[in-house]
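Morning, I've got a small favour to ask if you have a moment. I've been staring at a protein lately and its backbone has me curious. You're getting the sequence in one-letter code plus the fold written as tokens. I've dropped the whole record in just underneath, so have a look:
=====
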Amino acid sequence: MPDSFDRPFEPMTWGDGRQMYDLLAGLSVIEASSFVASPTAGLYCAQMGAEVIRVDQIGGGPDFRRWPVTAANDSLYWENLNRAKKSVALDLGRPEGRELLQELVRATGQFVTNFPVGGFLSHDTLAEGRADLITVRVMGWADGSPALDYTVNNSVGYPMLTGAGPDPVNHVLPAWDLLTGAYAAFALLAAIQRRNVSGEGCEVRLPLSDVAIGTVANLGGVAEVLYSGANRPRLGNAVYGLFGRDFVTRDGRRTMIVVVTPRQWTNLVAALGLGDAIAAIESDRGVSFAADDGLRFDHRDALYPLFERAIAARDHDDLAAAFDAGGIVHSPYRTMYDAVQDPALVADNPIFGAADNPSGFAYPAAGAFSTIPQAKRHSPRAAPLNGQHSEEVLADRLSLSSGEIARLIDAGIVGVASCKK
């Protein structure tokens, strides 16, 4: 099938139209996955120039219509997590469709999936005839049982730290999915490096639960609760161990202020004219806040009321100018709709560019998050239609003839895209 279709599209002006790199040019990866973590791994590889071939059930997998969707039920979620990939559609419920996926994996040599351990996509089965195969398998729990970001997060305790209590508070960002996807891409490249040296393939199993509890450990959380024998208190919007909290200005703007260096503390106190009041607290309590994050946190009962009054007496724009001049870290709270109107975040940000999206809706398309001054960015590519590249991939990767591909299409084993826009 062709790589583009006639559909309504308005040229966009976001960014300079360059958002991808070719650092991974020459690397091909088969991806059979759904939802967030595994597709994210493929997306990151594609944004760095790898050829990522996503294989789905004909008509789309379980995430093909996941919200947010347009009025026509096109998933904006799907077309962004699968940007710059190719699409092959197979009937994976039939033996011949499964065999085609197995052959594609062996022909390519790199495979990313969140299909369960075992079955027709087990690493041992796929590695038959391709001993150097690398499989990266995203999992829920290490024992193979299913899990989602939202349940793993509960399991490691973060909702019991979020908010002010007493009820747990779930966050809306699928952090463990995103971290797992990024780690899966890293693990794939690490396994490829190992193969380059040893010639050996391997399977990398990456459970969300291990990414979550491992991250808790890396941030000191495991050691903290074992050392203290207690859970960390719930702090609302206060930042643990630092001077950081939300405050409301005279004109009703809620803003977050966080201090991480002695210079920021000094400049914050000066900007608010609190030098004498802070000195009085230090004298009364026998402490010095100048260079100790922990003391500012421990004595927040005395500090917060001072800052609340000082900030409530100033308008936001006035404070923001003073904070910017002093290198103080701050940001007002705003909606996501407001955020996407910010030129610094979107319109003038080179990670965004224009792409002809399958949904037909024109909006900024995100590319590689990193900026590499020594490498050229390339024009963005849209997400594929389901089965858009089936014929191309089967011919190139498996050397199937046009007649054989036609037979597979007619038999309903291979799906191809149709232009609906």
About this structure: The chain has two domains: 28-219+351-415, 243-340.
